[in-house]
């Protein structure tokens, strides 16, 4: 991999100023995507600003019916947090199936959201819960944040500090793993709130994570797997690759949504 | 270049490394602890797993600089005079053939047993297989690796 | 507990591997070491117009950059294929020239055109990127079909139509006649998917040139260091054999892919002389996908005829085999003598005919991968049998049973002469263990849960222990396939065995020592197995084709025979009895019926002091032997796989897997079972997960673990591994070999299970969930 200047930032403010002074700097969170990308010589930033040890960016707190997770909180910390396991087990379960145990010890929710891989798991939870992504400059609603594969509303130099997810009455994440990478071939997060149901789909679309609004309407009316059984999912715009074509992914979207609803109960 | 300091297998070490040096490169090339291996480029095979501050991580996917100040344990550091129960279990159950993935398997095995024990959860066969998602072995078909970790879980 | 033959002794080599003290090639650092990186073609087929190294040469740390013209200009020879195959019309195979560094044309993505030597690995890579190669892109043929098309590009000048050879075996007319008169003919088109071997240790090499001695040393990831030395000297002219030492230290798996001598090893050796530096190169995983020889990749049309009772009357097979861009070392033999000769399977088939078209494509060379030809044969035969049973409405076990060979030796119509086996016995044992009879109830229970359940069987046979030298020589092999061993008993009674076999996971340091322990009653800790170094070991043909047991250990037995004979003679002399009264056991030479004996060290000392030897006996206790096998060996067995399929997603779970094998004599059942486990896992990988895919323009689409699905722990069940052995009649220990069986027998068992579950036989490997789901839908539509 190409060389890059390394900087350890211990606060968000440090990180922001280091980024601002770098020629082509990027934030290094857990590095579980960025470093393999750099090793493949597909990214060659001039500077790496390591924020993984910024304590102010870590931690999980539950208040007012929502959970706030610091951007540098690792997947394993989310998966094993006992308060969260009680309040929002679907999120723990999702975090506990990202990558593998060693990846979960390094990978962070902030890194995952900033990267917005079209097959990543966290974006589905964040979008399905209508979460708020907080940065060093503003709050961004999930519906505005995800803007297509590897594209987000983040501006240059903007740093995610935390994510606040409203805790649903019931929720479940169904992941169907791509056999090689173990990313989501398709993943569906269903979240039921007093004012309706939200459904977010990852892995399937060429436009990245997205809501399945027809299913949301149907499930808001009747929160049962049968409610989505007769909905049609178009294969248009869905990813077609070695591991499954659009028609197969369309099928998975529907099957996994139904299963998520059943499992959410 | 940056100066980094860390504790590796209980001993303080330091090095002047290029900023893009991966932790595995520091361990293998600077410290010459060659038990930690590299088997892929995409953070999947797990041959490079070591413990950083007590947690299993993939040393091919962490910069050495990010481990500055950390406590690192490699395969060379797990035995304490006698073989670690996980090392012994791999020998007892024929949990290795070519040996290349073995250090990573043992480091992941120790990590998963410790995590399950501290969480008070049972590490059954299905759990071991799931926990091994990040470690690839081409020789054993995993059958005896699963047996090895199960044995060690009972002894650790 | 006994440490002899049959004891599940724990492995001696494990301590170094479990403590991180193994010594693999990349772990070694030489004085004065520099690093190599290769400039590789990004195009599958291109003319190299110019290589401009000016920018790269001035980069930090760059020592030298050399290209193919310089390499061939120095007299380095082309890479060879060591087995000559003759086409139907009597013409020799069309072997296109393969230079370690491509000169005029590149023929696959990854074909190297230059080697860069620099002080560090990073500098070498950066400079390799900066070498400016002017390529003229040429049309690409990335598949068999594309290479055989009328307008296909010509990949090698001397291979018209991209045909390597058009070969045949068996009786065409008799087979056609049998099929014409058959009561039923089963026809299938079968694809055998292309695989990448993926040993976990990537290939690596360190070459050192000693100018003062005019001598080269190569550390390399090889399954056969002596073969490497032979071809590097005799054919590639890198150095004469006595000036080249090849060391294969701990090697992290091979599965065939480390048999061959690759361009990188040749180029590093040559570059070490050019630069007077040790030159080290280690592949990364993507480079491994791009350059390690692939396996399989066959397209086959087959017809099998049956009489009214279900007896096979004829089998006609037409196969197209993808060779990739160049003919690798043993590539030509894989789809011919290692494949078509096994088409009789475990069955009495009076008439067999097979023709094989070898085809060049713009892809990585294809050669032997675990099983090599035999998995392709087994997959074909066992899918045909299963399909025929379904078409005939017969129980698949019974159809097999009425066709099993029961008398030995059995001469098939395709060269092989099976020496022994109990085919029905193995099948019955596997069926019992798999509760074959209870399947219907389990299927009903699955159905009640909305799942589809299937069971599938394969009764494979394979040929191991390659092979009688004269026989393979007559079939075109360029080498003899014997093995050698030397047994050295030291003055203190410890024993060293020097073997030409190479252990890269097989546990030879334990099993070979067990053979010695069994013979003399010495503890295995007093036996050291030495291998992998051409300066230490007299000679060797290496480890592949499950030959270390039947061939490698047979050589050790022959050397042990000689040592034992000398010990007997010496002991009889010292104890003043006749040789017939000496028994060797418990590490003593004892006189029968008395309490007279010599301790083991007393024998060693007597031999080496030479103070009191029988008339004419030379001092010392060191004997060597070369063993040339009498025949191939024929491991066989029955595998039964049971699966459950989720019809909504196509996801398949293997719920049980039983293997019952006949490996002949087993030295260490623990190690043998481990070999079977690993083979089954690779077979499941081929059946359900793995495939190398190319785009039309010859780019590999699956060149990392992000897209090439390696079997993981949660893809596999526990395996039930059983033995039902008969003794091989053609080698001294009665061994058949076990290294490849799992990979050979598994794919058809898995696919027969899945197709039975989903009710659609039109399914190709790997059975990804998407494919299975589509096949379920197709069956549903067909049924409606």
UniProtKB/TrEMBL annotation, chain A:
FAD-binding PCMH-type domain mapped to chain residues: 1-170
SMART domains (alphabetical): CO_deh_flav_C
UniProt keyword Flavoprotein present: yes
PROSITE patterns linked to this entry: FAD_PCMH
Keywords, comma-separated and alphabetical: FAD, Flavoprotein, Oxidoreductase
Organism domain of life: Bacteria
UniProt xrefs under InterPro entries: CO_DH_flav_C, CO_DH_flav_C_dom_sf, Diverse_Substr_Oxidored, FAD-bd_PCMH, FAD-bd_PCMH-like_sf, FAD-bd_PCMH_sub1, FAD-bd_PCMH_sub2, Mopterin_DH_FAD-bd
Protein name: Xanthine dehydrogenase family protein subunit M
Naturally occurring in which organism (per UniProt): Ruegeria alba
From TrEMBL, chain B:
Domain 2Fe-2S ferredoxin-type span(s) in chain numbering: 2-78
Origin: domain of life: Bacteria
Keywords: 2Fe-2S, Iron, Iron-sulfur, Metal-binding, Oxidoreductase
InterPro entries named in the record: 2Fe-2S-bd, 2Fe-2S-bd_dom_sf, 2Fe-2S_ferredoxin-like_sf, 2Fe-2S_ferredoxin-type, Beta-grasp_dom_sf, Diverse_Oxidoreductases
Name of this protein: (2Fe-2S)-binding protein
Species the sequence originates in: Ruegeria alba
């Amino acid at each position: 991999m190409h060389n890059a200047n390394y900087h350890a930032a211990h606060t968000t403010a440090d990180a922001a100023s280091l980024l601002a002074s770098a020629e082509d700097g990027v934030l290094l969170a857990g590095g579980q995507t960025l470093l393999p990308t750099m090793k493949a010589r597909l990214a060659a930033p001039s500077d790496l600003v390591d924020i993984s040890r910024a304590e102010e960016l870590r931690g999980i707190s539950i208040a007012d019916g929502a959970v706030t997770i610091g951007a540098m909180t690792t997947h394993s910390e989310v998966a094993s947090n006992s308060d969260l396991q009680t309040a929002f087990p679907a999120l723990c379960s999702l975090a506990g199936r990202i990558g593998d145990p060693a990846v979960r010890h390094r990978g962070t929710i902030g890194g995952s959201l900033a990267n917005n891989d079209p097959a990543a798991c966290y974006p589905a939870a964040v979008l399905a819960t209508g979460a708020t992504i907080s940065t060093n400059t503003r709050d961004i609603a999930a519906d505005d944040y995800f803007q297509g594969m590897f594209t987000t509303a983040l501006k240059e130099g903007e740093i995610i500090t935390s994510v606040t997810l409203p805790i649903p009455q019931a929720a479940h994440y169904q992941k169907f793993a791509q056999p090689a990478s173990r990313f989501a071939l398709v993943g569906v997060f269903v979240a039921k709130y007093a004012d309706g149901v939200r459904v977010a789909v990852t892995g399937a679309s060429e436009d990245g994570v997205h809501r399945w609004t027809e299913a949301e309407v149907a499930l808001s009316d009747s929160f049962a797997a049968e409610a989505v059984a007769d909905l049609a999912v178009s294969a248009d715009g869905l990813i077609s690759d070695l591991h499954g074509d659009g028609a197969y992914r369309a099928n998975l979207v529907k099957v996994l949504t139904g299963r998520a609803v059943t499992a959410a109960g | 270049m940056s100066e980094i300091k860390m504790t590796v297998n209980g001993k303080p070490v330091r090095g002047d490394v290029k900023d893009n040096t991966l932790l595995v490169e520091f361990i293998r090339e600077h410290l010459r602890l060659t038990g930690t291996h590299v088997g892929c480029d995409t953070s999947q095979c797990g041959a490079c797993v070591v413990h950083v501050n007590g947690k299993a991580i993939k040393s091919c996917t962490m910069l050495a600089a990010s481990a500055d100040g950390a406590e690192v344990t490699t395969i060379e550091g797990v035995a304490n005079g006698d073989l670690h129960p996980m090392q012994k279990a791999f020998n007892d159950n024929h949990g290795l053939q070519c040996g290349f993935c073995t250090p990573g398997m043992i480091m992941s095995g120790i990590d998963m047993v410790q995590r399950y024990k501290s969480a008070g959860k049972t590490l059954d066969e299905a759990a071991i297989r799931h926990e091994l998602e990040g470690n690839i072995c081409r020789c054993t078909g995993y059958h005896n690796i699963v047996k090895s970790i199960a044995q060690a879980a009972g002894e650790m | 507990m006994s440490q002899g033959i049959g004891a599940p002794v724990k492995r001696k080599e494990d301590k170094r591997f479990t403590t991180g003290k193994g010594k693999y090639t990349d772990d070694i650092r030489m004085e004065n070491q520099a690093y190599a990186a290769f400039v590789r073609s990004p195009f599958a087929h291109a003319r190299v117009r110019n290589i401009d190294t000016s920018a790269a040469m001035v980069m930090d740390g760059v020592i030298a950059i050399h290209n193919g013209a310089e390499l061939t200009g120095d007299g380095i020879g082309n890479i060879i294929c060591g087995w000559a195959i003759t086409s139907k019309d009597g013409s020799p195979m069309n072997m296109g020239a393969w230079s370690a560094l491509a000169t005029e044309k590149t023929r696959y993505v990854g074909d190297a055109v230059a080697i860069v030597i620099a002080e560090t690995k990073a500098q070498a890579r950066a400079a390799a990127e900066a070498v400016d190669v002017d390529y003229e892109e040429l049309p690409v043929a990335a598949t068999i079909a594309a290479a055989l098309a009328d307008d296909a590009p010509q990949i090698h000048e001397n291979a018209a139509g991209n045909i390597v050879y058009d070969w045949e075996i068996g009786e065409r007319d008799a087979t056609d006649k049998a099929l014409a008169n058959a009561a039923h003919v089963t026809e299938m088109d079968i694809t055998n998917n292309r695989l990448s071997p993926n040993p976990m240790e990537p290939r690596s090499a360190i070459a050192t040139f000693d100018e003062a001695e005019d001598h080269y040393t190569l550390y390399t990831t090889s399954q056969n260091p002596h073969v490497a030395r032979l071809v590097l000297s005799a054919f590639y002219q890198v150095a004469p054999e006595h000036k080249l030492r090849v060391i294969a230290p701990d090697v992290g798996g091979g599965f065939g892919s480390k048999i061959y001598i690759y361009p990188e090893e040749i180029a590093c050796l040559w570059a070490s002389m050019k630069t007077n530096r040790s030159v080290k190169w280690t592949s990364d995983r993507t480079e491994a996908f791009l350059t390690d020889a692939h396996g399989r990749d066959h397209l086959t049309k087959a017809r099998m005829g049956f009489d009214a009772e279900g007896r096979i009357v004829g089998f006609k097979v037409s196969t197209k085999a993808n060779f990739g861009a160049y003919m690798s070392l043993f590539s030509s033999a894989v789809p011919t003598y290692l494949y078509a000769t096994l088409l009789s399977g475990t069955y009495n088939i009076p008439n067999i005919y097979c023709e094989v078209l070898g085809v060049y494509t713009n892809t990585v060379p294809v050669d032997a991968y675990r099983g090599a030809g035999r998995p392709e044969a087994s997959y074909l035969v066992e899918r045909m049998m299963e399909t025929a049973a379904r078409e005939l409405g017969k129980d698949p076990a019974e159809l097999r049973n009425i066709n099993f060979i029961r008398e030995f030796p059995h001469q098939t119509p395709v060269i092989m002469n099976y020496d022994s086996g109990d085919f029905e016995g193995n099948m019955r044992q596997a069926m019992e263990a798999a509760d074959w009879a209870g399947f219907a109830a389990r299927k009903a229970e699955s159905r009640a849960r909305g799942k589809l359940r299937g069971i599938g069987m394969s009764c494979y046979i394979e040929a191991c222990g390659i092979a009688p030298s004269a026989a393979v020589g007559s079939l075109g092999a360029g080498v003899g396939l014997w093995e050698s061993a030397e047994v050295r008993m030291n003055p203190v009674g410890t024993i060293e065995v020097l073997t030409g076999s190479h252990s890269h996971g097989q546990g030879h340091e334990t099993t070979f020592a067990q053979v010695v322990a069994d013979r003399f009653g010495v503890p295995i800790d007093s036996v050291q197995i030495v291998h992998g170094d051409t300066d230490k070991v007299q000679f060797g043909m290496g480890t592949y084709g499950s030959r270390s047991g039947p061939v490698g250990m047979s050589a050790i037995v022959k050397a042990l025979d000689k040592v034992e004979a000398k010990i007997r003679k010496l002991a009889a002399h010292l104890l003043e009895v006749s040789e017939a009264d000496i028994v060797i056991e418990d590490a003593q030479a004892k006189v029968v019926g008395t309490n007279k004996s010599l301790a083991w060290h007393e024998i060693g000392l007597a031999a080496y002091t030479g103070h009191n030897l029988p008339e004419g006996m030379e001092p010392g206790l060191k004997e060597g032997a070369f063993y040339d096998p009498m025949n191939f060996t024929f491991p066989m067995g029955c595998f039964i796989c049971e699966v459950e399929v989720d019809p909504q997603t196509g996801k398949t779970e293997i719920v049980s897997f039983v293997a019952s094998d006949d490996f002949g004599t087993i030295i260490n059942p623990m190690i043998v079972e481990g070999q079977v486990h690993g083979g089954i896992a690779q077979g499941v990988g081929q059946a359900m997960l793995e495939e190398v895919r190319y785009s039309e323009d010859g780019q590999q689409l699956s060149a990392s673990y992000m897209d090439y699905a390696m079997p993981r722990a949660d893809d596999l069940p526990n395996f039930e591994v059983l033995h039902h052995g008969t003794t091989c009649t053609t080698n001294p220990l009665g061994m058949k070999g076990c290294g490849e069986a799992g990979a050979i027998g598994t794919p058809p068992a898995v696919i027969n299970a899945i197709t039975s579950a989903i009710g659609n036989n039109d399914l190709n490997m790997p059975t990804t969930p998407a494919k299975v789901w589509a096949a379920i839908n197709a069956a549903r539509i067909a049924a409606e």
